[in-house]
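Propose amino acids for all 282 sites.
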């Protein structure tokens, strides 16, 4: 199984990735990062004690396990398979933890490429949003070799609670189930509350009532957080929901599983967030 990991690389310091990375470096791990588009998260990590290098290859060379928390397969392709990607720097006995939401097929492709190098690959996407990342209470669905997971368990448990889901790729399947439900529920909740507001009810009263009713959900319980994703113009993270639905629908097509509601919401996501009515003037 090998000794517990002490040196951790982190790639993807975004909305959820940055608070995750903070928990790694403040948990006593020697942490190595590299920049992508924005300097602010890198500078914050350096203030907390992380070391910056220039490329993903150098991140892998300096660490025993690398967390990849970028947004999609395309970004992960560059980080892992690029000329200065992780696969150019990993060493026998290292681990790659795919914690962004990627297609299961992509995760398996990474494992095939890493296998000859004797590098372990796990898919370990997260649920719980930014507040879960900050609190260390994320849900982490893990796919991969179960005995091999034990070496990385302390790192992952610094971030949240692990659910072992089965072979590589199954962690992403479980995550996509969550995101299908969450993205669809977000649209439904907005539609229902908008209808109530158009009929004269206040947003605050509707949300508080739903929190105690059968229409309750994670979305309702965290309504103010959700609204930050549904503003105009929406943050880039808003469109991640549509990407996740597309991954799910591609798999649905392959296995001939009808998902008509997911397909509808996926199309609606392309048009941007729904809008709530303006409150009536007093």
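Proposal:
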């Amino acid at each position: 199984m090998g000794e517990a990991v002490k040196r951790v690389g982190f790639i993807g310091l975004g909305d959820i990735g940055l608070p995750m990375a903070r928990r790694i470096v403040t948990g006593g791990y020697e942490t190595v990062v590299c920049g992508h588009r924005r300097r602010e998260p890198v500078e914050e990590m350096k203030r907390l004690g992380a070391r910056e290098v220039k490329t993903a290859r150098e991140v892998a060379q300096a660490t025993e396990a690398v967390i990849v928390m970028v947004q999609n397969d395309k970004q992960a392709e560059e980080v892992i398979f690029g000329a200065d990607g992780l696969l150019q720097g990993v060493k026998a006995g290292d681990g790659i933890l795919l914690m962004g939401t990627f297609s299961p097929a992509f995760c398996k492709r990474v494992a095939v490429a890493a296998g000859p190098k004797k590098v372990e690959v796990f898919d370990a996407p997260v649920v719980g949003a930014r507040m879960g990342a900050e609190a260390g209470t994320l849900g982490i669905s893990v796919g991969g070799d179960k005995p091999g997971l034990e070496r990385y368990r302390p790192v992952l448990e610094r971030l949240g609670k692990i659910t072992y889901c089965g072979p590589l790729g199954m962690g992403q399947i479980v995550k996509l189930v969550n995101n299908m439900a969450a993205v669809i529920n977000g649209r439904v909740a907005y539609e229902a509350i908008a209808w109530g507001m158009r009929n004269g009810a206040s947003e605050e009263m509707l949300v508080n009532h739903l929190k105690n009713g059968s229409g309750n959900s994670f979305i309702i319980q965290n309504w103010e957080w959700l609204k930050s994703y549904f503003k105009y113009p929406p943050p880039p993270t808003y469109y991640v929901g549509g990407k996740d639905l597309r991954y799910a629908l591609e798999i649905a097509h392959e296995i001939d599983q009808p998902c008509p509601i997911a397909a509808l919401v996926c199309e609606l996501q392309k048009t941007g967030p729904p809008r709530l009515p303006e409150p009536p003037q007093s």
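The two ends are 67 Å apart (CA to CA). DSSP finds 14 helices and nine strands in the chain.
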